[in-house]
C-alpha cells in the first residue's frame, strides 16, 4: 500500500459547486445517479485538464459530460480512480453507479443494518457510493432524492431540510432533501427504514424553533428520552459557552445497530451506534448514560467544530476531533463534577494514549504520513489533541480563549482549514506567541519531566529543578523542548497552601502558579518558607506529560488527605497504590503490604464529608493496564497476582468498613441520575466487588439480593459482575443464565453480558471465550458483539490474554485474520493489544511477535491491517 504524505498536499484541481443525487434503493442493490456541477480550481497548482475522481467497489453504469455520454475511450476506469483526460473549465458530470449495500460488511459507504439502509462516509466512504473527489477540501451543496419501497422504508432521510416528497409507481415513494451549507462528502448521510420518531423542539438564542427528532426501531421507542434531553442541554451549552447557534431547521439522530465507531456527525443527520444513544433505567448503566450524554454532545458540537469549519486534509483530523473532545469534556464537567471528569479523562490518557505514544504506531497530533486514514482515529488525535487545546485554554484564560474561538469560527466559516489556522486565530485574538507551542502538533511522544527539589533551611528557599525530554518515536528523534504549562502548589506541614513568592522581596504570592517550561532545564525558587514544603505537582494534570519525582509514601499519604487540588488528591492515592503493588511485583514473597495504605482506604471508606464522587474514584485501585504501562518490561501474570494480593489484603482488613459503606449507600429510594446518586451506586458496588473478591458470605447474600431486586442496570450489573468474579461458582452460573434469560432480546444488554464474562479471569478463560463466539447471540457482522467478546478479552482480561504459552495471542491473531476479510477497520483495531509486544518481558514478547507475523503472512491482507502489523514489526 501507498503512503500518503502531508508534505505532498496539493489543492484540488477541480471544485464541486453542487451535487444532485438520486438514490434508487432495492433489495438486490442500489442505483445512484449523481450530477456534479464542477469547475477548475483557480488555486490549483498543476496545469492540464485531467479530472480524477475517487471510487471504491463501484459498478459504473454510465458517464456523461454536459449531457453527452462518454465513449469508453474517453475515460479510464482504474479501479480506485475514474480518470477523464480532458474536461472543460466548467462542466456538469453525470455518473450512474450500481452498488450492493446488502453485501457491504465493511460498513463504509451505503450498507444495511437490521433491515435499514444507512451510510458511513467518514473518512473515505463516499467513494463507495459514487465517483467523487472524495477529500474534505472539496465542499459542495447537496440535494438528495431518496426513492424506496414505501411499506418497507417509510422513513427516508438525508442532510438538510426536506423540500419535496411524494408517491411513485409500484408502491414506492420518494423524499428530496436539500442542504444549504456546503460540505465535504464525508458529512453526507442517508437513512431509509421502518423507524419510529421521537420529536421535540428547541428554541435557539435568537428565537428560531428547531425540530428535533430521534429515529429508532419501534422496540426502542422508550429508550430515547435521555439522549433527547442531552441534545437540548448540549444545544443550550454551546450557545452559552461558545456563542454557537444551530443553523438548520431540523436536527436528526438515527440509531443503527451495526456501526464501526460510536457515532457520526453528518450535517443535520447524526448517525449513532445504538449503544451510544439508547438508554433506560433498567437497561443502561450510569457509565452508559454518561457516555451517551458525552457522545450526543460531541456529535452536536461538531456542527461548528468540524462541519461549518472543517479539515483541509485528513492530517488535520485533530483540528475537529481534538477541539470537539475538549468541548465535550468541558460540557461534561459543567454537567457533573469537574474533578471526576478530569480523573476519567486522565485515566484514559495515561493508560492508553501514553501507551500509543510509546508504541510502534506513535504519531504526532498532526501526523505527517499515513497509509490508511481509518487507522488514525486514535487516542492521540482525539485525547492528546484535546489536551493540547486544553493547554491553550489554560495559557490564554477562558476569556481570551473564547475570543480566539470566535475569531476562528468567524474567519473560517465555510472553509476547510488546518490546525495551524486554529492556533493562529488563538494567537491573533490573544496577542500570545504560540510558536514553540506548535511543537505539540508536530512532535510525537509523551514529554518526560524529571523533577528534583532542594530546601535551603537557612535562606528559607525551596528550589524545583525540572529537566524536560521528549522521547524518540518511530521516524522522529532529537526532539526540541516543548512549551509546557506546569501547575504547582506548595503545602505546609498542616496541609495549608503556602504563598508562592518567586522573588526574594515578594510576599503574599498566589497559592498556585502555572510555571511555563520552554527550555530543557529550568530552576524555580520559592522564597520565605519556614519549613520544607510538600510539593503538589502538575495540578489538574495541566499538561499531558510524565512527571518523575522521588515521592515518599509519607508525602503521598499527606497529599491524599490534604491537597486542595482534587485531581492531585486522587493521583496521590494512585501513586501510593502503584508503589505498593510494584514492590510486590518486585519481591512477591516476604513483602509486607503497607499498613498505611489500609488505613488510608479505611479513612476514605468512612469519609462522608469529602465529595462522594471523588471518594468513589479514590477507592478504585490502579488498573492492570496502567500498571503495565508504567513498567519497563511487563510480566502481566506477576502484575495481576500482585494487584489481586493487595485487593485481597485490603478487603480482608476492611471487611467491616466495606459492609458499613455498602449499607450506608444502599436503599436510596427512587432511582435518580444525579451525581450524588451515581456516586452512592459506585461506592456500594465497589464495596460489594471487594467483599466478593474475598468470597465473603455476607457479601454474597447482599449480591444475590441486589442482583434480584435491583431497579436499575448499574446495580444489577454491579451485582452480576461481583458474583461472576467471585468463587461462588453456582451463583455465577445461575446469575449469568438469569440475566441472559431476562435481557436476551436487548442487544445492548447482551453486549454487557458478553463483556462481563470476557473481562473476568474466572468466566473468561480462553475455552469460555471460544464458547461465547459460538453463542447464538454472537454475530461476527456486528462490531459491538466482536468488541464485547474479542476486544474485551484481549484489552481487559489481561492475565487470561497473556497466559503463558501464547494461546491468547494465537486466538487473537486468528480472529483478526477472520475479520479482515469482512470488516478491515474493526480487524485493524483488534490488532492493537499485540502491537506493543516490545513492552513485555521476553517470554511474552516473542510469542506476541509470532502472532503478529502470522497475521502479516495472511493472503490478501487489507490496507488497514497491513499498516498496523507492518509498523508494529518494523
Ligand atoms: N467523526 C466521527 C468519526 C467516525 C468514523 C471514522 C472512521 C470510520 C468510522 C467512523 N464513524 C465515525 C466520529 C466522531 O469523532 O465524532
Ligand atoms: Zn468527533
From TrEMBL:
Gene3D superfamilies: 2.60.40.1840, 3.30.2010.30, Neutral Protease Domain 2, Peptidase M1, alanyl aminopeptidase, C-terminal domain, tricorn interacting facor f3 domain. Keywords: Aminopeptidase, Hydrolase, Metal-binding, Metalloprotease, Protease, Zinc. It comes from the Bacteria. InterPro entries: Aminopeptidase_N-like_N, Aminopeptidase_N-like_N_sf, PepN_Ig-like_sf, Peptidase_M1, Peptidase_M1_dom, Peptidase_M1_pepN, Peptidase_M1_pepN_C, Peptidase_M1_pepN_C_sf. Its EC number is 3.4.11.2. Residues 35-187 form the Aminopeptidase N-like N-terminal domain. Its cofactor is Zn(2+). Belongs to the peptidase M1 family. Residues 554-874 form the Peptidase M1 alanyl aminopeptidase C-terminal domain. GO terms for molecular function: alanyl aminopeptidase activity. The gene is pepN. Residues 226-437 form the Peptidase M1 membrane alanine aminopeptidase domain. This is Aminopeptidase N. NCBIfam families: pepN_proteo. Residues 445-549 form the Peptidase M1 alanyl aminopeptidase Ig-like fold domain.
Amino acid at each position: 500500500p501507498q503512503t500518503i504524505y502531508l508534505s505532498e498536499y496539493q489543492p484540488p484541481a477541480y471544485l464541486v459547486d453542487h451535487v444532485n443525487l438520486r438514490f434508487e434503493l432495492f433489495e438486490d442493490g442500489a442505483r445512484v445517479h449523481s450530477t456534479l456541477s464542477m469547475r477548475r480550481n483557480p488555486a490549483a497548482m498543476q496545469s492540464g485538464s485531467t479530472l480524477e475522481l475517487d471510487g471504491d467497489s463501484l459498478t459504473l453504469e454510465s458517464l456523461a459530460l454536459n449531457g453527452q455520454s462518454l465513449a469508453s475511450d474517453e475515460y479510464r476506469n482504474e479501479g480506485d480512480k475514474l480518470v477523464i483526460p480532458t474536461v472543460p473549465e466548467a462542466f456538469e458530470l453525470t455518473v450512474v453507479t450500481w452498488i450492493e449495500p446488502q453485501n457491504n460488511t465493511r460498513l463504509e459507504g451505503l450498507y444495511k443494518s437490521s433491515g435499514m439502509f444507512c451510510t458511513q462516509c467518514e473518512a473515505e466512504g463516499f467513494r463507495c457510493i459514487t465517483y467523487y473527489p472524495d477529500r474534505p477540501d472539496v465542499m459542495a451543496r447537496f440535494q438528495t432524492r431518496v426513492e424506496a419501497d414505501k411499506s418497507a422504508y417509510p422513513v427516508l432521510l438525508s442532510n438538510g431540510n426536506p423540500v419535496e416528497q411524494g408517491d411513485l409507481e409500484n408502491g414506492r415513494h420518494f423524499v428530496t432533501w436539500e442542504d444549504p451549507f456546503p460540505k465535504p462528502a464525508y458529512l453526507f448521510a442517508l437513512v431509509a427504514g421502518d423507524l419510529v420518531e421521537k420529536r421535540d423542539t428547541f428554541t435557539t438564542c435568537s428565537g428560531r424553533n428547531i425540530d428535533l427528532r430521534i429515529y429508532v426501531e419501534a422496540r426502542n421507542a422508550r429508550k430515547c428520552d435521555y439522549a433527547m434531553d442531552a441534545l437540548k442541554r448540549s444545544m443550550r451549552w454551546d450557545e452559552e459557552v461558545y456563542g454557537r447557534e444551530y443553523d438548520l431547521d431540523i436536527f436528526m439522530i438515527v440509531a443503527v445497530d451495526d456501526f464501526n465507531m460510536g457515532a457520526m456527525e453528518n450535517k443535520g443527520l447524526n448517525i449513532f451506534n445504538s449503544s451510544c444513544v439508547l438508554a433506560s433505567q433498567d437497561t443502561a448503566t450510569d457509565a452508559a448514560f454518561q457516555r451517551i450524554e458525552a457522545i450526543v454532545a460531541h456529535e452536536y458540537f461538531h456542527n461548528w467544530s468540524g462541519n461549518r469549519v472543517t479539515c483541509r486534509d485528513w492530517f488535520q483530523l485533530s483540528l475537529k476531533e481534538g477541539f470537539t473532545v475538549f468541548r465535550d469534556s468541558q460540557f461534561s464537567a459543567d454537567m457533573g463534577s469537574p474533578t471526576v471528569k478530569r480523573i476519567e479523562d486522565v485515566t484514559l490518557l495515561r493508560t492508553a494514549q501514553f501507551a500509543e505514544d510509546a508504541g510502534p504506531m506513535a504519531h504526532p497530533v498532526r501526523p505527517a504520513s499515513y497509509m490508511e486514514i481509518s487507522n488514525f482515529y486514535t487516542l492521540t488525535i482525539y485525547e492528546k489533541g484535546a489536551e493540547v487545546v486544553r493547554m491553550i485554554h489554560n495559557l490564554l484564560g477562558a476569556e481570551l480563549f473564547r475570543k480566539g474561538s470566535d475569531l476562528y469560527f468567524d474567519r473560517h466559516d465555510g472553509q476547510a482549514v488546518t490546525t495551524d489556522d486554529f492556533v493562529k486565530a488563538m494567537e491573533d485574538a490573544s496577542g500570545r506567541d504560540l510558536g514553540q507551542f506548535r511543537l505539540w502538533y508536530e512532535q510525537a511522544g509523551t514529554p518526560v519531566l524529571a523533577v528534583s527539589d532542594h530546601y535551603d533551611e537557612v535562606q528559607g528557599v525551596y528550589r524545583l529543578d525540572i529537566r524536560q525530554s521528549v522521547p524518540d518515536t518511530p521516524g522522529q528523534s532529537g526532539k526540541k523542548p516543548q512549551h509546557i504549562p506546569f501547575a504547582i502548589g506548595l503545602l505546609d506541614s498542616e496541609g495549608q497552601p503556602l504563598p508562592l513568592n518567586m522573588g526574594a522581596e515578594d510576599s503574599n504570592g498566589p497559592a498556585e502558579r502555572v510555571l511555563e517550561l520552554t527550555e530543557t532545564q529550568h530552576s524555580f525558587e520559592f522564597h520565605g518558607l519556614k519549613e520544607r514544603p510538600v510539593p503538589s505537582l502538575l495540578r489538574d494534570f495541566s499538561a499531558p506529560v510524565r512527571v518523575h519525582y522521588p515521592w515518599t509514601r509519607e508525602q503521598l499519604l499527606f497529599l491524599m488527605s490534604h491537597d486542595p487540588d482534587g485531581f492531585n488528591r486522587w493521583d496521590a492515592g494512585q501513586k501510593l497504590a502503584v508503589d505498593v503493588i510494584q514492590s510486590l511485583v518486585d519481591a512477591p514473597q516476604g513483602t509486607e503490604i503497607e499498613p498505611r495504605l489500609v488505613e488510608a482506604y479505611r479513612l476514605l471508606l468512612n469519609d462522608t464529608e469529602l465529595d462522594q464522587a471523588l471518594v468513589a474514584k479514590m477507592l478504585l485501585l490502579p488498573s492492570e493496564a496502567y500498571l503495565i504501562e508504567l513498567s519497563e518490561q511487563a510480566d502481566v501474570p506477576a502484575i495481576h497476582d500482585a494487584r489481586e494480593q493487595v485487593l485481597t489484603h485490603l478487603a480482608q482488613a476492611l471487611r467491616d468498613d466495606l459492609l458499613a459503606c455498602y449499607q450506608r449507600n444502599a436503599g436510596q429510594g427512587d432511582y435518580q441520575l444525579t451525581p450524588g446518586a451515581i456516586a452512592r451506586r459506585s461506592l456500594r458496588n465497589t464495596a460489594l466487588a471487594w467483599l466478593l473478591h474475598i468470597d465473603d458470605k455476607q457479601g454474597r447474600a447482599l449480591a444475590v439480593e441486589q442482583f434480584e431486586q435491583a431497579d436499575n442496570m448499574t446495580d444489577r450489573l454491579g451485582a452480576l459482575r461481583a458474583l461472576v468474579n467471585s468463587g461462588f461458582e453456582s451463583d455465577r452460573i445461575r446469575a449469568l443464565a438469569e440475566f441472559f434469560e431476562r435481557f436476551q432480546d436487548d442487544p445492548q444488554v447482551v453486549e454487557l453480558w458478553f463483556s462481563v464474562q470476557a473481562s473476568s479471569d474466572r468466566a473468561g478463560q480462553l475455552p469460555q471465550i471460544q464458547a461465547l463466539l459460538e453463542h447464538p447471540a454472537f454475530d461476527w457482522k456486528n462490531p459491538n458483539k466482536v468488541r464485547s467478546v474479542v476486544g474485551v478479552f484481549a484489552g481487559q482480561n489481561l492475565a487470561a490474554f497473556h497466559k503463558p504459552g501464547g494461546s491468547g495471542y494465537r486466538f487473537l491473531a486468528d480472529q483478526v485474520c477472520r475479520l479482515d476479510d469482512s470488516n478491515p477497520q474493526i480487524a485493524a483495531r483488534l490488532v492493537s493489544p499485540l502491537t506493543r509486544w516490545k513492552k513485555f518481558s521476553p517470554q511474552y514478547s516473542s510469542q506476541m511477535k509470532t502472532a503478529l507475523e502470522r497475521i502479516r503472512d495472511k493472503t490478501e491482507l487489507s490496507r488497514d491491517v497491513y499498516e498496523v502489523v507492518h509498523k508494529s514489526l518494523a
